[in-house]
Amino acid sequence: MRARIDPLTIAAMTVTVVSISATAPLTAAATASPLAMAFWRNCLGFAVLVPLLLLLRRREVVRVVRRERGILRREQWRPLVFGFLAATALALHFAAFMTSTRLTSVAMSTALVATQPVWQALIAAGQGVKASRRTWTGLSLSVVGAAAAAGLDIKSGGTALLGDLLALVGAIAQAGYTALSEKSRADVSTPLYSTFTSLVCGMELLAVCWLADIPLTGFDRSTQLSLLGLLLLPQILGLGSLNFVLGRTSATTMSVLLLLETPVAALAAWWFMDQNVAIATIPGLLLIIVGVTVVVTSGGEQLASAPDDLGVAIPRPAYPPHIPQPTPVARHLTFRRKVRRDPRLDWATYTEHPTVTLTYHGAGAFDTLHMRKPRPPLEEEPFVDDPTVSLAVPTRRR
Predict the structure, then answer these.
(1) 245: number of CA atoms within 13 Å, CB side?
(2) Which stretch of DSSP H or E encloses residue 371?
(3) Whose CB among 53, 200, 223, 313 lies 3.0–4.6 Å from 30's, allowing a Cys bridge?
């Protein structure tokens, strides 16, 4: 019998999908540079995460500042390097994905970025993880769907094809971020790791904008509203409701449900931006969604990791599967070792008082105790001249 989902969880799922789907339309509606938008998104995300981190993980932050955590020890520099590389991959993901929304349609950009589980499965296969036939089937369907959906952009050429390629780069970078985060999250909580990656990602995007001479201020009203929408919808409302839903359902279910981001984002782009979806690309988009669904459901929880506070999937630490143990049955315990009988119990059988001798060695207290049982009375010796009596030597115990 299937478990029923309460109406509150269904409402939270709806809010999650609609809020996260607003990322691509809001980015495409702005007039500022996509790299500047990516920087401000991480900057605003960092501004939101720091108070939450100090509120929820203040002791952990104090330990890190005092260098009492393992992340700052010599043997933990490797996870720290992997965390830095993961933040770099995250910066590449935001830059490529948000740029692709300006060059191609919102539907194509969202659908191609949604192929992240496909690339994550390929990375796992390259690391020696054996993939099932169902996973490879989903990979094939996603590749065929992406080729069919991008066929129109390939024929037309221009910026649309470049946008499709950037969307694929964003999906690959997101998969790389997930794989690197799995190696770096050894002794760090999710809030602290999300704050660290958002800080490094924002600093790297700031350096790129400074080198490319991209203005970070002086935005028009549409860009300011887009940045406010990115902060309120996907960053706060979307991820807050997502964390609520993940406490009531599995990550695989939510990963499949988040694939609805593609049609919802395409509908929002058509409604607010008059951006139509080409009919020739619809079969390919649907095939991408089907292929990613097959990959996510075949890979289990490992490929369907829950997103972090930046909207990108962070894998949970890999633990061995839990094997339920049978209920223990109460049994009578038996000891094979023979218990030596206490000799003091034998004294209770005697009515006479034993003789106790204490010896003093001259160096301390009386530490030697000699105890002797009273000798039992000797039996009368039989008359020797009696031929019916056999001689027996009585034995004495000491």
Answers:
(1) 28
(2) strand 368-372
(3) 223
How far apart, in whole angstroms, are the C-alpha atoms of residue 273 and residue 198? 30
Contact 289, 155 (CB under 8 A): no
C-alpha closest to that of 120 among 316, 320, 296, 306: 296
- DSSP one-letter string for 172-214: HHHHHHHHHHHHH-SS--HHHHHHHHHHHHHHHHHHHHHHTT-
Which position has the token pair 């952990």? 60
Alpha-carbon distance values, 125 to 119, 129, 131, 144, 363 (Å):
10, 5, 6, 20, 78
- One-letter identity of residue 288: I
pLDDT digits (tens, 9 = 90+) for 14-61: 898 899 899 899 999 899 999 999 999 889 889 988 998 888 888 888
pTM: predicted TM-score of the whole model, two decimal places? 0.71
Q: Is the dihedral of CA 156, 157, 163, 166 positive or negative?
A: positive
Residues making up the chain, counted from first to last: 398
Which two structure tokens, joined as six digits, stand for 139?
């990979």
